[in-house]
Design brief:
The protein has 173 residues and is mainly alpha-helical. The protein contains five helices and four strands, in the order αααββαββα. It has a two-stranded antiparallel sheet. A two-stranded antiparallel ribbon has the order 3-4. It starts with 20 loop residues before the first helix and ends in a 13-residue tail after the last helix.
Length: 173
């Protein structure tokens, strides 16, 4: 297994996790049911670290272009910490931390992984784009799923809502 290196807010060039095993343990103990806690508790420490690395990678891949602000350190491996970022209340987020919503979202994806759910299923047609007409904008998708075919976890989207730009946002130049 690759080294397990948790981002501490300094913008490490080799970090691969937003949270520690203890932080996920605390989150799941606080916010989930006994069944979920059993699924996570059944994993050994190495598997928990792998789940955290996978969850961190998934969050960065899914949201990196939507996070507010920019990387705090050019050479940092992960998307957080960030500079010039603010939450939905317009409060500036310190550039030298990983915000709690990022940690909580990582923990939430770990919950899904522990329950043996595929967080990024292969596209099989369900929810995939079937037809697109450009003039007069017409889109048609195969039945089921989302436009991308990926499972959307509402808790993660809600938790991150203050730190990300809305999808499809228009920027005037």
């Amino acid at each position: 297994m690759a080294d397990f290196i948790v981002e501490d807010g300094s913008g490490k060039s080799n970090s691969n996790a937003y949270v520690t095993v203890a932080e996920v343990d605390l989150y799941l103990d606080k916010y989930t049911t006994a069944t979920v806690d059993t699924s996570w508790s059944a994993l050994d420490n190495t598997d928990k670290q792998r789940a955290i690395q996978r969850a961190t990678l998934e969050l960065d891949n899914r949201f990196r272009l939507r996070y507010k602000g920019g990387k705090a350190v050019h050479e940092q491996n992960l998307s957080w910490p960030r500079s010039n970022a603010s939450d939905d209340s317009k409060h500036t987020i310190r550039w030298d931390i990983v915000p709690i919503p990022i940690k909580d979202s990582t923990s939430e994806v770990c919950r899904v992984i522990a329950e043996s759910k595929d967080t990024l299923p292969d596209l099989t047609g369900s929810g995939a784009l079937r037809k697109e007409k450009i003039d007069v904008l017409e889109r048609e998708f195969f039945a089921g799923g989302t436009a991308t075919g990926q499972t959307v976890y509402q808790m993660v989207n809600l938790t991150l809502s203050g730190l990300i730009w809305a999808e499809g946002r228009l920027v005037r130049g």
